[in-house]
Request: fold
Amino acid sequence: MFAYAIRRVALLVPTLLAIITISFLIIRLAPGGPFDEEQTLPPAIKANLEAAYGLDAPLSKQYFRYIGGLIRGDFGPSFKFRDVRVSELIGQGLPVSLSLGACAVLLAILVGVPLGALAALRRNRAVDHAIRGVAVLGIALPSFVVGPVLALVFGLYLHWLPVAGWEGGEARYMILPVVTLSLPVMAYVARLARASFLEVMRANHIRTARAKGLSEYTVVWRHALRPALMPVVSYLGPATAFVVTGSLVVETVFGLPGTGRYLVQGAINRDYTLVMGMIVVYGVITLLCNLIADLLYSWLDPRVRHD
Amino acid sequence: MTESAGVRIAGGLWGGALSRMARDRAALVSAGVIVIIALLALIGPLVIPYSQQALDWQHIASPPQFSSGHWLGTDRLGRDLLVRTLHGVRISLVIGLMATLVSLVIGVTWGAAAGFLGGRSDELMMRTVDVLYTLPYIFIVIILSTIFARGNVYVLFFAIGAVGWLTMARIVRGQTLSLKRREFVEAAVVTGVGRAAIVTRHIVPNLIGPVVVYATLTIPQMILYESFLSFLGLGVQEPLASLGSLINLGAREMESAPWMLMVPAGFLVVLLVCFNFLGDGLRDALDPHER
Reply:
């Protein structure tokens, strides 16, 4: 287990470096610079600006300077927000986005797994059909449709919850964004859990448990749950990517001060360093979550470690 | 396997698939709905007496009604929502199809090459896919849309297609690997058929099934990416409209004009659901393992 974990962590660095290098190269080698759109600057001013931001140095020097900065936790200056460093924006936005994402994944598992299990145990009954129908919708409906509709119904028509805003992460303000973000993941988890419960309930060890005369409750929770959870655990990695993508929409729809909104604004403003910084942050988050999911998987299923 | 099943399969991959498809009502209805929406998008803007950008000062932000002539209402500038939405459907469908084509070409070439070459090159090519997989696609698209001129529809579908080929490459590679080891390929090798002929006569025809299925399932994904980007303001730009940018406009006005959100959102959701049902139906009809 330990050796496996070490090997996985060691793989993290080159992958991250590849992500940084590729996005750095795409951004720097592309035609046009970050100051092109401001009403045609006089060449002298443009040269000054580029010198001030270190854009006049050769590409390799810029690259190593950027990597060096990253190691010190410095993501460079923002090109569009004057006198603001990208690290400050990340520091402000990350707690919001992280708590949002963590709540969404947690909610998806806590609701999705029991729903999937219920559907599997009541196969082809009304409950099963209802859960599967809702799951199909949950997967098919994009978050940029679900978010505004939820805000419309629960915020504007029913006045139960605030339509937008963050207010320092007050629970009332978090409900709609978290639900919106969580819904597709929840639907997918429910579908996975249903399929794997159906398969596990046919397995030999379940037949043995039943033959021993154990109660249905013990059979499900003690013998079926753990093997049935494996597909859900292995979905956690892709789920992170899903939540990260969804958070861009959810933060825009509900006006939350998270990193997702900075990434979108950075892309609209062509703020290269901001976009780069956000990509690095999201790359680290995605890689870490994939790692955690894989470690969790190998801990639950020892067979994986001996590949 | 019974005699008749054997005969049916011998009758051709497509004959059997078609008869199975004909029994799948959800897939058939979905195909019908997609055709109808596509025809509407094609013909509607020609028939409806308003253009995409025409402003009707008599009817500003009017709700859906027949008497005003704007069946699905207008937006805050008095633009007819039905025409705008149908134009949006056009753009979304075209980008979805073109991006799928781009991802199809890259994915099939990459996957078939990796699977057929095997060994070192296979290892290297699939590791590349793995690394790209860890990064959410949308980031690469966002980087590309940051650096290229926004609103350029060609860049958009190329960017979306260029990141959507990973799953296709994996599927095609797996399929090629397993086909390479099948008895009929071995039989072909034994009887002295050349490498090129094996690829074109035995491997590629057997790839078509899964490729068609996955391509059908890729279209709604590509439409979704495009709408996602346009919703965020990174995709199709005014005065053009795609379903995503219309939903964005609608979401801003939903308090006073909820139809502006509901109309494009409805079209998008129906399209996505239908494409998914159609893909599932095709998979059931074409996948040899499910028979």
In short: Chain B touches chain A at residues 131, 134-139, 142-148, 224, 227-228, 231-234, 244, 247-248, 250-251, 254-255, 258, 261, 265, 268-269, 272-273, 276 (CB under 8 Å).
